[in-house]
Amino acid sequence: MSRETGLELVATNDIHYTFAEDEKPHDILLCIQTGKKVADTDRMRYEGGQYYCKSEDEMRALFPYAPQAIENTHKIAERCNVEIEFGVTKLPKYEVPQGFDSWSYLNHLCREGFKTRYPEDDGTLMKRLEYELDVIKSMGYVDYFLIVWDFINYARSRDIIVGPGRGSAAGSVVSYTLGITNIDPMPYNLLFERFLNPERISMPDIDIDFCYERRQEVIDYVVEKYGKDQVVQIITFGTLAARGVVRDVGRVMDLLCTLRYDSKDDSGGAEYDPG
Fold it and tell me: Tell me: the pLDDT tens digits for 136-158?
């Protein structure tokens, strides 16, 4: 078909684990994921043990009749050149109205919102607001808050339902005065430091719920405003803790085992008691 159409071939291998010796652990993990046991006959499995990252020599041995396909694979690999700089926070720049910079505009929005949220403040809550703003500025997250405020404001202006706020962001007066959250942290003594803490540098984590039927409109707005190459959706990868692994692997392999902890053991060790 390639010869008839003139379309080039590319040789690839279906990869589910890195090394050939990972076949059995991968099979056990598959059982854990699907709720099956290794001994089950009617379960999903990858037969043959060939689903690893093969070397160039192995691939050439598999496709001796199509050397050009191997060369094409190499050409594609040569085009892939991605460098990821870790440990550096990179945020888009929010375009503020004329006459403001990011810092003055964030202060402006917060103080306007403050008038509505806390009209009877005696100055106590204003000190809390100023403290939070100083922390946000010192940690370099001024534009972050403006960006989040902007797309939440967009959603509300289009009558897209937005949740009242969840998680540690509900402890922030800045979030409340900006309208990012609709939960007043003061009556509940919620701590801002659980949200942002200068002694524990991490990105702010603001959980936002949008109407599931119209959430794509918000995503489209952000993509259009900041550029397709600046916006991504992420996934969370779960990991298995050591104790859970022992339990799950024992279950799928039909091995009954008990981890017995000895409270008298100062080392905090555990005995493995096969049943």
Answer: 999 999 999 999 999 999 999 99
260 phi, psi to nearest 5 deg? -110, 120
**Total domains present in the chain:** 3
26, 46, 79: which is the final residue of a domain?
A: 79
In a domain, 261, yes or no: yes
Q: pTM for this structure?
A: 0.69
Q: Are 87 and 155 in contact (CB under 8 A)?
A: no
- Model confidence pLDDT, tens digit, residues 5-56: 999 999 999 999 999 999 999 999 999 999 999 999 999 999 999 999 999 9
Q: Which long-range contacts (CB under 8 A, 24 or more apart) does 209-214 make?
A: 209/162, 209/163, 209/166, 210/155, 210/160, 210/161, 210/162, 210/163, 211/160, 211/161, 211/162, 214/158, 214/160, 214/161
Q: Is 270 in a helix, a strand, or coil?
A: strand
Domain that holds residue 207: 102-228
SS3 at position 213: coil
Question: What are the phi and psi torsion angles at 88 (to 5°)?
Answer: -125, 125
Instruction: For residues 107 and 178, state if they share a domain.
Output: yes
252 and 178 housed in the same domain: no
